[in-house]
Amino acid sequence: MKVSLKKEELKKMIPSKTVVSGIIIAVVIGAIYYFFGNRDTKKSQQAMENRMEEGFDRIRIGIDTERISSPQTASDYRIRGEVFLSGNNLEMAIKEFEKSIALDSTNFDIHDKFGDIYFNAQDYDKAIKYYKKAVELEPSKIYIYDKIGSSFYNKQDYDKAIDYYKKAAVGNEIHEYYFIIYAYIGKGDYYKAIEYYNKAIKLNPPNLYAYYYAIGNIYDKMQNYAQAIVFYNKAITLKKDYAVAYFNLGDVYSNLGDISGEQLYYDRAIGYYNKAIKIQPYADAYNNLGNIYYYAKQDNDKAIENYNKAIELRQNNADMPYPLYSDMELTPNDTYIYYDNIGRVYFEKQKYDKVIESYKEVIELNPNYIHAYGEIGRALFCNKDYDSVMQYCNKAIEQDSNYVYAYYLIGNAYQEKGDYDNAAKYGSKAIKLSPNYADAYCIVGDAYYYKKDYNKAMEYFGKAIKLNPNDAYVYYSIGYVFQDQKDCKKAARYFAIASYLGYKDAEKWLICNGY
């Protein structure tokens, strides 16, 4: 909820049409500076000062030169503040406005303007302070209560936000009910939110479809999917091209599919996502389709196709938020999620070079996403590039020294290189960080097996089995411990368990040894 001055209030702050022209030119000059003039700090600072002076020169055309060059009245300082504000020089604008208030503390416009400045700077406590002073000066300007409510809303103080929205609702119920509703949603009081939606609907608002959609959202949050479907469909009945309602119906049916496992629900979800995309292409719709094809349909090619469409939309800046999401700030770097999904699918297809390629894109977009380094390490391990495994895992550890999986992978890489001391060392580090990590006990057990320290090997294999009794590889490894100790009967027993649990190499051993 970005606050801006109302036109009629802005008019009162400016003494003449000539001043308006001057300020407009100053705004243009300031905008040019903001977008193009800040590449070099010293040069841009000088450029800003020059352009501000040009703005003042324009204003002087219609006003006595001394009034701006040597301001004396509250109005003079206020105008100077406006010019600095237009050039994005917030610090100087605040100084000029403070001088204006010092000369005239009863000026409603300045307090209102100060509130707007601090609201947009996300300093909500100061915004509230100035808005309260403004409404104290002119109690009839009840729209200020809306601004105070929005400030408390952004502080997540929903009770106070509701109080002020209610004060602002006098004579403007439809507008304020909408904000009251979202404040109740913020505090998790969904039934109160629905109550106010029903009040708003009785006033017959012009965008009734949006209210039905929002009630659907509340029921969706409550996981009352049957009612969510009813209200999303009511919204669509009134607005046939309501893409976001189709999108949310896709989410609802996808959730029902996850709960029940019924393919029918996934099929309906696919249908609704495609309807939404037909009206307005949306990256998350393609991403959700990819998830359904991967998890529910086991169609990896279709999953990759949809993930790539999501990425393409974002890369071409063609991905726009759906209606009612117009205040949502799109963050293109969220695209890393789509690359993460593609990387997972390529892992299943055993296309490890593609996995590495996908997760490098993830790191490019989000260098702090530790999981990406681990997945590259895992793919490199599958490609038997053990030195690179260590390189990427150490990068992960630099960012998070408690990232267990990185230590585990490094231990595996050392074992494959025949460095069993370091394999045991890194496996033990993983265990220290995560004492219930069964695979880490296994890697340490393997290291001791290769060092022919069978007692230690059995100690760690035993702990691994205790944590995961169905790990076929551990039984297979124990079988080799007994084989090396010439105890073929015990070896056969453990190979048989491993074979029963599905380990093919154990079955081969049994056949070759006549069991």
Q: Can you walk through the features of this model?
A:
With 515 residues, the protein is an all-alpha fold. Among the domains are: 1-104, no CATH class; 470-515, no CATH class. Helices cover 76% and strands 0% of the residues. It contains 29 helices and no strands. It starts with 6 loop residues before the first helix and ends with a helix.
| Proportion in helices | over 70%
Instruction: Give the overall shape, derived from the CA principal axes.
Output: elongated
Oligomer: single chain
**Element pattern in H and E:** HHHHHHHHHHHHHHHHHHHHHHHHHHHHH
Largest β-sheet summary? none
Which properties best describe this structure?
mainly alpha, 76% helix, 515 residues
Question: Topology, pairings included?
Answer:
Layout: H1 7-13, H2 17-36, H3 41-60, H4 65-69, H5 74-86, H6 90-103, H7 108-120, H8 124-137, H9 143-154, H10 158-168, H11 173-186, H12 190-202, H13 208-221, H14 225-238, H15 243-260, H16 263-279, H17 283-296, H18 300-315, H19 336-348, H20 352-365, H21 370-382, H22 386-399, H23 404-416, H24 420-433, H25 438-450, H26 454-467, H27 472-484, H28 488-500, H29 504-512
Helix pairs in contact: 2-3, 2-5, 5-6, 6-7, 7-8, 8-9, 9-10, 10-11, 11-12, 12-13, 13-14, 14-15, 15-16, 15-17, 16-17, 17-18, 18-19, 19-20, 20-21, 21-22, 21-23, 22-23, 23-24, 23-25, 24-25, 25-26, 26-27, 27-28, 28-29
